[in-house]
Amino acid sequence: MLEEAQKFFVDAAKDESRSIYKKDAFVRSSQVSDVSYKLAYALNRGGNTFEGNVTISFYLTAEGAQSDEIYVDYRGEKVHSLGVNGTEVTSGNPFHDHRVYFAKEHLKEGSNTAIIRFTTRYVRDCEGANYFKDNDDGEEYIYTDCEPANQHKIFPCFDQPDIKASYTLLAVVPKGWHVFANSPQNG
Length: 187
Hints:
Elements: H1 2-5, H2 22-31, E1 32-42, E2 49-60, H3 62-65, E3 71-73, E4 78-84, E5 87-89, E6 95-96, E7 99-101, E8 110-121, E9 129-133, E10 140-144, E11 165-172
Parallel strand pairs: 1-11
Antiparallel strand pairs: 1-2, 2-8, 3-7, 4-5, 4-8, 6-7, 9-10
């Protein structure tokens, strides 16, 4: 059992409320830019959890590449694996206090890539990936609410309004489910 528990990282503060402070957000946005996400979800029936994988591409300034404070926000259940620029992180505690930290020895000035495989809990409070089972039709429904500071309740990301990002999405869902997604309109 101990061997199985060591195959993933768990945030001991996952049930606590944590936020990024304004000064920290300003520093991070001065160090991180050109962000994009490739998201893949396996949405499950039953209303408990779903699995995901995100590839995060981002640019770091020279100062950012030397920082011990480069992280993505994440208020999820587990981080199963973390890779940064081709290096698999297997030790330490990179996932804590609603953040997944990228060690500076894995980062570089310029383009960087992090790949995170994760498990997230569905919520029922309209702040994240919401699960709802309709008693009238017996169907299960999932929808997201990503107001500012709610995105990291779904997947690991730079969750602050001044770090804009593009994304691609792949959703694997049970037979009979339909997926609808939107994105900002240009112009």
